[in-house]
Amino acid sequence: MDVAALASRLRALAADLPGPGIDTADAHLESSLAEIKDASRESNTEVGARRLLAAREHLGSARTRLAEASTAVDDYLDAIGAGAAPAAPTAAPAAAPARAAPVDPRRWWTDRVNELCRRSGTAANDTTSPTRLFNELLRAAADGSAVTYHERLRDAGPETGVKLPGLAWPLVRTLAAEHLGRNPTARDVPTLRDRTADRVRSLVPGLEAAHIETAIASACTLGPPKHHGDETGDAAATAAVGPALVAALHRLAKTERKART
Question: What is the pTM of this model?
Answer without folding.
Answer: 0.62
